[in-house]
Design a protein that fits this description.
This protein is of the alpha/beta class and about 500 residues long. It has 14 helices and 18 strands. Helix 2 crosses helix 9, helix 2 runs antiparallel to helix 14 and helix 3 runs antiparallel to helix 9. The longest helix is centred in the middle third of the chain and has 21 residues. It binds zinc ion. The site of zinc ion has 5 residues, from helix 9.
């Protein structure tokens, strides 16, 4: 080694020693992660928000009064947190809303028993309190129905749908094991599971070879009082909407979902010739003064002059079904994403890009809120036109898989994101979030971004007891696990922080 080379190396060594922080440039980032955790775990507002949204406001069926109250509540709360431009925005026509005002049902013959049941949304009323015989319609095609002509006037209709319930030895709630998490990447898992609720309905329709709509229309034309449908077990009522509520101008007969244990008894009694009589009163109405879909939007403006026009979006749907109070579908998503905004704002961490929250309306009837927002601002597929936000959105994070810990992320078939998320997840490995799956699960608002190639993420979450509770009368505050949601808010805030400060927008899929 010559003299000059040695002097040069000494100078380099001195420079390195003079700037010791550069050895670990990520220390500053980790200081911010620490601030995020302090906000999430010591100053959490999740409980307060959960009580206000579920117990306070109640069910939030699209277009109902509860839904309208919920969007106003979310806007006000975001404003209180200091979120900028928090606003309620209409994004197009949904149709008439629907409101349940009174409901009672019981078996009166062969003996008195209260029944676990609830009317389906967008179905009608009885003429006050009525009492009538239950008639079983056993038809497997439209032609079969003809034999019941003239026999259903003033009657209550059921079908012979009775299933054997297999005993379950599964735990009531569960977390993913390491093995489960590894399996998230198996190729056989690429296809998302079908919604068990829809699968059940389809099976039922197939077993009858007759659509629900055919049956309802026949009963209505014949003057039946109500149609009763078997849905849910263990006394838990699973419900939905008879015709999804679009563009209805009048309500038909009441269609009532009843739990299997009470429904199956009627089927067996009638089968052996014992008359069954029910007493019921249903009062439902259309809400005709509001036909719009609303979303709630709010922002934290980016601090970097060059990057603040770009956006990292987070979101969850705020509408729910009407049997419960939308605890985990999707109250948990709403309060976690609002809490993420609060954490990012109140921790004071620096965000280069703007972070935007969207609480979508009418997701349950077909992603109407997010689809219309994207159509207006991002891309209109009908006219093949890019909107003003098309080039600005880096990524969209969605929360709609219940109350469990976040265990990782679905990359939605976009492999280029893998090295980025290997880094992004490192600061939350100790919280149990480290799995990266390339799978592309759907069924929620992130899909409207994915279809355009924009990274739209769903999170891998422990299922807890989601499958038993969603769309039922038990989806209330008590099913929300607030401890899990603190972890979830921390993980999402940490991912959003890094996405907002990443040198580039996240890579898109070629479409
Ligand atoms: Zn949902």
């Amino acid at each position: 080694m010559n003299f000059f080379k040695r002097r040069f190396l000494t100078a380099v060594a001195l420079l390195v020693l003079a700037a010791p922080l550069n050895v670990f440039p990520q220390v500053d980032q980790y200081k911010d992660f620490q601030l995020i955790r302090e906000q999430a775990f010591s100053k959490s507002e999740l409980r307060e928000m959960a009580v206000e949204l579920t117990d306070g406001i109640g069910p939030r069926l699209s277009g109902s009064l509860g839904f309208l109250n919920s969007v106003e509540w979310a806007k006000d709360r975001l404003q209180t947190m200091g979120i900028e431009n928090a606003r309620v925005e209409p994004w197009g026509e949904f149709g008439n809303g629907w409101q349940m005002e009174k409901f009672y049902i019981a078996q009166t013959k062969p003996y008195y028993q209260p029944l676990s049941a609830i009317p389906q949304a967008w179905t009608g009323s009885t003429n006050g309190l009525v009492k009538s015989e239950v008639v079983m319609v056993n038809a497997s095609s439209k032609e079969d129905l003809a034999q019941y002509a003239g026999k259903l006037n003033g009657k209550i209709v059921i079908t012979p749908y009775e299933k054997d319930i297999e005993v379950s030895f599964e735990p009531l709630a569960s977390r993913y094991t390491e093995e489960d998490l590894n399996r998230q990447n198996e190729i056989s898992q690429v296809r998302p599971d079908m919604d068990p609720f829809i699968r059940e309905r389809q099976r039922e329709a197939w077993s009858r070879g007759l659509s629900n709509t055919d049956l309802i229309e026949f009963c209505q034309a014949e003057g039946a009082i109500a149609l009763i449908n078997n849905s849910g077990t263990w006394g838990v009522i699973r419900t939905g909407g008879s015709r999804n509520g679009r563009n209805l101008t009048e309500l038909g007969i009441p269609v009532i979902d009843m739990t299997h244990e009470h429904y199956g008894r009627m089927v067996r009694l009638i089968d052996r010739g014992t008359p069954v009589e029910l007493e019921l009163e249903v009062k439902n109405k259309l809400v005709t003064d509001n036909k719009l879909i609303y979303n709630v939007i709010g922002e934290i403006e980016g601090a970097n002059k060059k990057l603040k026009d770009e956006v990292v979006m987070i979101g969850a749907h705020i509408d729910s079904w009407h049997a419960g109070t939308g605890g985990n579908d999707n109250g948990s998503g709403v309060i976690v994403m609002m809490e993420v905004m609060r954490i990012l704002k109140q921790s004071g961490v620096k965000l280069d890009r703007t972070v935007c929250i969207a609480l979508w309306g009418a997701e349950e009837q077909g992603l109407h809120g997010s689809r219309n927002w994207v159509k207006k601002y991002v891309y209109d597929s009908e006219t093949d036109t890019k909107g003003p936000e098309y080039d600005k959105i880096s990524a969209y994070y969605n929360f709609d898989y219940g109350t469990g810990w976040v265990r990782g992320i679905f990359l939605q078939d976009n492999l280029a994101l893998k090295p980025i998320f290997e880094e992004f997840l490192k600061p939350v490995h100790d919280l149990g979030a480290k799995t990266i799956s390339t799978r592309n699960p759907g069924s929620s608002d992130h899909m409207v971004f994915n279809r355009l190639g924009i990274p739209g993420f769903a999170l891998i979450q422990d299922r807890i007891d989601y499958g038993r509770g969603y769309h039922t009368n038990m989806d209330t505050f008590d099913r929300i696990q607030l401890g899990d949601l603190k972890q979830a808010a921390t993980v999402v805030a940490t991912l959003v922080y890094q996405t907002a400060n990443y040198p580039d927008k996240l890579p898109r899929k070629q479409m």
